[in-house]
Amino acid sequence: MSARNPGMKLDLERVSKVRVNTQAVLKRAQQVQGRKLAKKQWQAAWLLKAVTCIDLTTLAGDDTPSNVHRLCLKAIQPVRHDLLKSMDMHNKGVTTAAVCVYPSRVADAVKSLKAANSGLPVASVATGFPAGQTPLKTRLEEVRAAVADGAAEIDIVINRTLALTGQWEAMYDEIRQFREACGDAHMKTILAIGELGTFTNVYKASLVSMMAGSDFIKTSTGKEAVNATYPVAIVMVRAIRDYFLCTGHKVGFKPAGGIRTAKEALVWLSLMKEELGDDWLCPHLFRLGASSLLADIERQIYHYVTGQYAAYHELPMA
Asked: pTM value?
């Protein structure tokens, strides 16, 4: 992970002046989606880059130690060894960026990765994920428990009620407390953009989250009706850019929810390169929150190497 974002004093005057031009955002999103994507070996290279930025995730009610263990092994070896070898990438340390689980599964993930001799970080969702509607004391305890179990990254959710009612000071204070509870763990702040109503609210929530010390801002829990969309991403990355120009601190970006195809991964990387530049094209500042995305990327890499599409049983599942 990158250097921590120390945050700054809440600048309410700056937050209150925020206005987002919706039509301009939608037009820019159309441009990004309309770009021609890389082909052949260049596409394969970009897809491997995408793999290294994935937070390989399982957030299901039926998670068990065994499927978390399998997820960890897939994160360590995300693409079949023979495919990587034919691309001369087998010894380049290609892994996903992290594994992401519920707090109660953190210890399982840490144990599996340790047993496999891997230094891959474990990320945990917390603070009453996905709704964030539990008491503040409980949400803080959840963060501390996940960190104590070995989580190196914490994906917190904001209290959407505070954002929707314009209580930015209260939201700032809550996030500061979460940041403190994280200790040395990096903190990603989930805005749950599908429940914030307007682009202006999304920008304000992004700004307040960064001022409060978030190391990353993340679009969604993946449990809302609307998750990672390109227009919302543009609003959030512009907020990241403005915050960087104002403070000199680089904050990461993580789209999550509904990202399932290799083609979408390429569009996300293209968006980051155009909006924030090459510095953000690495797992320190860009993550893709996904569970089924990796399978499609591996299928495309298989096609690049062999000229054929793999049957599903030919690629080990996460």
From this structure: 0.96
